[in-house]
Amino acid sequence: MNYLKILEEITLELKSYTTVGQVTNTIPELAKINPDKFGIHLTTIEGDDFGIGDSQERFSIQSVSKALTVALAFSFLGEKIWKRVGVEPSGTAFNSLIQLEYEKGIPRNPFINAGAIVIADMLVSCLENPKEDFLRFIRLISGNPNIDFNLSVAQSEKDTRFRNAALGNFLKSFGNIENDVDEVLDFYFHQCSIEMNCVELANAFFFFANEGKTRDGKSILTTSQVKRLNAIMQTCGFYDESGEFTYKVGLPGKSGIGGGIVALYPKNFVVATWSPKLNKKGNSELGMHALELLTTKTEMSIF
Amino acid sequence: MNYLKILEEITLELKSYTTVGQVTNTIPELAKINPDKFGIHLTTIEGDDFGIGDSQERFSIQSVSKALTVALAFSFLGEKIWKRVGVEPSGTAFNSLIQLEYEKGIPRNPFINAGAIVIADMLVSCLENPKEDFLRFIRLISGNPNIDFNLSVAQSEKDTRFRNAALGNFLKSFGNIENDVDEVLDFYFHQCSIEMNCVELANAFFFFANEGKTRDGKSILTTSQVKRLNAIMQTCGFYDESGEFTYKVGLPGKSGIGGGIVALYPKNFVVATWSPKLNKKGNSELGMHALELLTTKTEMSIF
Amino acid sequence: MNYLKILEEITLELKSYTTVGQVTNTIPELAKINPDKFGIHLTTIEGDDFGIGDSQERFSIQSVSKALTVALAFSFLGEKIWKRVGVEPSGTAFNSLIQLEYEKGIPRNPFINAGAIVIADMLVSCLENPKEDFLRFIRLISGNPNIDFNLSVAQSEKDTRFRNAALGNFLKSFGNIENDVDEVLDFYFHQCSIEMNCVELANAFFFFANEGKTRDGKSILTTSQVKRLNAIMQTCGFYDESGEFTYKVGLPGKSGIGGGIVALYPKNFVVATWSPKLNKKGNSELGMHALELLTTKTEMSIF
Amino acid sequence: MNYLKILEEITLELKSYTTVGQVTNTIPELAKINPDKFGIHLTTIEGDDFGIGDSQERFSIQSVSKALTVALAFSFLGEKIWKRVGVEPSGTAFNSLIQLEYEKGIPRNPFINAGAIVIADMLVSCLENPKEDFLRFIRLISGNPNIDFNLSVAQSEKDTRFRNAALGNFLKSFGNIENDVDEVLDFYFHQCSIEMNCVELANAFFFFANEGKTRDGKSILTTSQVKRLNAIMQTCGFYDESGEFTYKVGLPGKSGIGGGIVALYPKNFVVATWSPKLNKKGNSELGMHALELLTTKTEMSIF
User: Fold this and answer.
1) What are the φ and ψ backbone dihedral angles of D57, each rounded to 5 degrees?
2) What is the largest distance, in Å, between two alpha-carbon atoms of chain D?
3) Nearest-CA distance from C86 to chain B in Å?
4) In CA terms, which of A43, B70, B171, D161 is 20 to 30 Å from B55?
5) At CA D153, angle to CA D148 and CA D158, rounded to 5?
């Protein structure tokens, strides 16, 4: 398949696509971004790379990081992580407290904020130097030692933390946070502030498509574990729009309000897109459309 | 009316009443209380006093304080307090976040925790030394300069603050808290920790029954304002059991998880009860029953 | 007190009150009404009558009838009616199914539609000829043998019954309807279609203010029972605006989407108003305002 | 792959699996079934058949039929069906009215009851003889002219219809049912009453795995359309347990309270299981476990 030609076609078609979305305004530091950026990078399981546009410019990965923290927690703790967080779609917005109240503090899945905060708490408990160790993990799986937190973004998230602080304290009131809430949130804000470009993200998610092994062969998770996380990404990776993404794109993936999306076709490829304008559900408008075009043109969806 | 005889009858009847309730376990410091305490004190508008049982032993007034903070905020700010908190019954438990999420951070009424935290925020904004000034107000209306916070109870509430911290941060995320969340909660935990006995409580609430004037004639609120706060106590004063209390007792009132209840018959009397065992809705089991007996025996309900 | 002068003042003040409400459009037959009608009638416990405006023109009493069906059911069945319907404010709109789902088919109170349908089911079970017998009861308490159903309104409600049919079937699925759903709804639509004017309504509700006895001395309920129903009207009589009505007016009452409101001051008076324009919560806009003016001017609220 | 051997292994392992589930009691006629039945049948895309146990005994397909009605509606109406029903997981139980109330009568997806009733309404509108035509469609795709409704099951569902009648009327109140509610429910109860065995079900669902073409080559839907329905089965096919099924089994599928489950691996195989004992979420306990064993043993999940 001539992926480069397809990526070029997609980029061309997107130029005539009228966007209505907005750059996130929930975190002041992120609101400064140039809204017209667009990049896409695809890495095949054989190791071929195809990129176009702003695919080498870094951006804030935000919730895309949730797939990586859950992978790290899963590698440490195995199936027992599901005692504290579920694997079901939430049916409500990503930062809702309602489901949490009805379900006694067990978040529906690790990709809504509440679930990610519980996963962060697990990592704070089992990592010696949580932030440093997680950064080392990201550098390892992406094969890039330069990846780092953006401290001003982390600080900006802290300054506007109230909704997440509500979630953290609410979880703590149900006994589902072990550590100090502020310490857990500090870790969470740092994980979200990590900056990567599309190439680095495609590399970092390579092991999800490659039966648990990174591009340079390091084993992160078992085949079975990776299948399971891919399954959760499929049903829960796009907040309240997971069904729509599954319907239109048909690949497991994870999005972030920085405008990034990573999706993957097991045993075939990983693809990362970046475009900061978000639709009403908080997912990158052009990114979702680009991936829909990709699976339509290649006829490569898992369904 | 021979109130003393009626209070004696009530006390006698309560002895054969089988309780199933429990002392609160939400605040460790309060869990230590002797569950068998019972006191009741009634003060008529003419200034006659009738008390029995443990009516002169102090206890933690807890949410009973919410009626006093809203009165103080009302005296400072007038009707505009209702822009930030409603006057409708909540239909859900006292510390629910659900209604708050659907209603964009405007608590249903000032007697659920979220509403009381917003009122606390108002007082933190308009009092120079919030804790000291509020204490002075309590001493003024009750005519007793010895009333004080119980600092170990306040600390105990702080140590188990997570649900309230979730509420405070959630309100802040909707822009309905002006001050620092921790500072507001500190005030809130102190107001709840105030210790009073039944006599003192009946005195403190005297102005609600006396067209806004304290027992010694100081004017706190206008007649119209007091009627309005009595109305809110009637519909919202007993959490999710306000309708039941209105149905059975038929007087405006306010309860607290320390086991205290104050109720009043405008232009007639104020009555305070104390018994630490709470029913499932968080209201004093014997206190509710005592007041039901009182209005049945005296045929003095507002309906 | 010169009630006539006060009613005249109120009527005058209402002329300069800018209404924003709308006549109900939920039932086509009711949408035809002249929106500018306004009438008010007050009957004192001593038997003096004061009326003004369109107080002698009949209108559809709609949900005002719910206070009368619950009174009749209470007279037959006593306290056991509360096993199938609660006495708590609902916290959600009058026709909501949500609370019903969480609370397993027990409506919060007899004044939301679900609760009134359960009460209707009780009457269908205990009356020999339900519709005729209920009409006879209305004629008895109002002292007027000409009061009747409006059959075209009843038919119009049947034609647009889907929300109520949903409620009826939902209640039946929880086992809280004994009879055929369609038969119960037929009774319910007829009870709502009854037409009365303000004078007749004030007469019909006289027993609520008169310790259970009608204007001509017939005993309908005991003093204690009437107090209890007044209490429920206070906390639940105005749907999701009951707190607001209690706050502003301070009297127990019941409204209907036909634009009628009845309120009463126990042992003092009954007052009925009619104005078809409804506010967003479904209560008569001018009627609520007229009653607020009444209790402000007379200083006669129960609080 | 030696599928027969694998099915034998699975059957053997299931014998030592302790079930805790119950046969459905929601429909009296279905409660009569022998709870110990178990059958499984797998058909490969190449046309090889492997069956074991009670795989040739018919049972009530119930909600499995929802995948077939949506396929038929999709073939008639195309993408516009999604204006009246969504493609998102529901996050609440299969027959919940709550989400429907918040989302103004648009069911979350076609596999919850509300969504299936809307799809049934579409078919009642576009089929000349709805029940007969739908039966003809089932016979066509399964290649079996003997498949039929079980009229006593359909009648049993009608007799206990109240929850579904609530849903139908509720949808109608939002304008999302075009036809008479009873007529739509009659169709719906008949579609659910269809009886098939595992072999027939595997044949009927063959086109979902075969790019839209039945086993004997008839084109039902386009490749793209089939992918999209598979996607919805993946995210929504198992009610409130869809995430769990995706996590453990990793194949799109659809279950029914008759104990049947169909799952499929696009371009590879279709598998149908039957065991009447249901877990708490309403899915066949042994069926779910059998399919988990199948994808574990074959390592054939789409992830």
Assistant:
1) -100, 130
2) 54
3) 8
4) B70
5) 120
Mean pLDDT, chain A, rounded, equals 95
Comparing CA positions, the residue from D87, D95, D99, D119 lying closest to residue D24 is: D95
Beta strands in chain B (DSSP E): 22-23, 39-44, 49-53, 59-60, 195-196, 253-255, 260-265, 269-274, 277-278
Contacts of D161 in chain C (CB under 8 A): 169
A303 in any annotated domain: no
Please determine, for residue C93, whether its predicted confidence score (pLDDT) is greater than 70: no
User: What order of strands is seen across the sheet that includes strand A49-53?
Assistant: A49-53, A39-44, A269-274, A260-265, A253-255
Domain count, chain A: 1
Asked whether the predicted pLDDT for residue B85 surpasses 90, the reply is yes
C303 assigned to some structural domain: no
CA distance C235 to chain B (A): 5
**Can you give the pLDDT at residue D240?**
84
| Residue C7 resides in a domain | yes
3-state secondary structure of D196: strand
ipTM of the complex: 0.92
Residue type present at position A131:
K
Helix D181-193 with D162-173: angle, nearest 10 deg:
130
Q: Chain A within 8 Å of D86 (Cβ-Cβ)?
A: yes
Contacts of B32 (CB under 8 A, 6+ apart): none
User: Closest residue of B to C91, CA-based?
Assistant: B91
Q: What is the domain extent for residue C142?
A: 3-298
Instruction: Write phi, then psi, for B67 (nearest 5 degrees).
Output: -70, -30
CA-based nearest distance A227→chain B, Å = 35
Closest by CA position to A188, among listed A245, A107, A279, A249: A107
Summarize pLDDT for B30-70 with one digit per residue, the tens. Answer: 888 999 999 999 999 999 999 999 999 999 999 999 999 99
Give contacts of A181 with chain B, Cβ < 8 Å.
162, 165
The CATH code of the domain that includes C171 is 3.40.710.10
Which of C26, C163, C169 to mutate to test binding with chain D, by most D CBs within 10 Å of its CB? C169
pLDDT, chain C, mean: 95
Indicate whether D55 pLDDT > 80. yes
Is C106 within the bounds of a domain? yes
Ramachandran class of C269: left when φ > 0, alpha when ψ lies in -120 to 50, beta otherwise: beta
What number of CA atoms fall less than 13 Å from residue D75's CA on the CB side? 20
Q: What's the CA gap between C43 and C210, in Å, rounded? A: 11
Encoding tokens for residue D150?
């079980």
Q: How far is it, in rounded angstroms, from Cα C129 to Cα C135?
A: 10
Residues C23 and C261: their CA atoms lie apart, in Å, by 15
**Taking CB atoms and an 8 Å cutoff, what residues of chain B touch C226?**
303
pLDDT of residue A174 exceeding 90: yes
